[in-house]
Amino acid sequence: MRRTKAQQRQDTTHALVTEARTLFARHGYAAVSLADIVDGVGLTKGALYHHFDNKAALFHAVVEQVQSEVAARVVAAAETSDDPWLRLTAGCEAFLRASADPDVQQIMLVDGPAILRWHEWRTMDEAASGQHLSEALAELIEQGTIPEQPIAPLTHLLSGAMNEAALWLAQSTRPRDLDDTIVALSRLLDSLRHPKLT
User: Fold this and answer.
1) How far, in whole angstroms, is CA 194 from its chain's centroid?
2) CA-CA to 158 of 20 to 30 Å: which in 37, 91, 102, 191?
3) Do the Cβ atoms of 38 and 73 come closer than 8 Å?
4) pTM more than 0.70
5) SS3 of 125, please?
6) Which fold has domain 55-193?
């Protein structure tokens, strides 16, 4: 069967994003040229510009894909339990483990904020993992597991702590650092629980 134009566009976009993701993860955004990307998939720059305005727009699509995959891993881990507290802790651990992937670190945490600018990167982060974290905290506050407090600052504090930990892990050379970070995160989360429940 002949592919429709829409399918051809979708296939081309997918090929460009996939190749760009591989190159950005391996070499970093600054070291990758548009020529590198189109050569890798056998296309012309004109074909690329038909789908993306520039390299930054293509990178935006790559970051979006990576953040979506990390969020899916967080949700999958959280949904293994019916207990809201276990959902929170499992989701946070899954985020750290996913973020320990060097490819994820390079694209989402190193180049992402620098290339997309902080505000745009934060907006994308909130739409992915940040929204799930906020909802989990809201449920725990509602049921009394965490004392009543504004959700937005708590969400940003925890999200920032986990992003910073992931960046630190990217520079780490000790194999145990990921496990030690997860233990520290568990203690940090436990400190949020209502005193009557600890």
Assistant:
1) 29
2) 102
3) no
4) yes
5) helix
6) Tetracycline Repressor; domain 2 (1.10.357)
**CA 61, CA 20: separation in Å to the nearest integer?**
10
Q: Are 165 and 96 in contact (CB under 8 A)?
A: yes
How many CA atoms are closer than 13 Å to the CA of 131, on its beta-carbon side?
A: 12
Provide the token pair at 56: 């930054």
- Condensed to tens digits (0 to 9), the pLDDT of residues 126-166 reads 887 888 899 999 999 999 999 999 999 999 999 989 989 98
CA 44 to chain CA centroid, Å, is 30
What was the pLDDT predicted at 167? 85
H or E stretch at 187: helix 177-190
**Residues 79-96: tens digit of each pLDDT:** 999 999 999 999 999 999
SS3 151: helix
Q: Does domain 1-52 have CATH number 1.10.10.60?
A: yes
Q: Which H, E and C letters describe 31-57, residue by residue?
A: HCCHHHHHHHHCCCHHHHHHHCCCHHH
In this structure, what are the phi and psi dihedrals at residue 22, rounded to the nearest 5 degrees? -60, -45
Two structure tokens written together for 150:
């504004």
| pLDDT at 1 > cutoff 60 | no
Residue 47 burial by Cβ neighbours in a 10 Å radius (0-12, 13-18, 19+) = middle
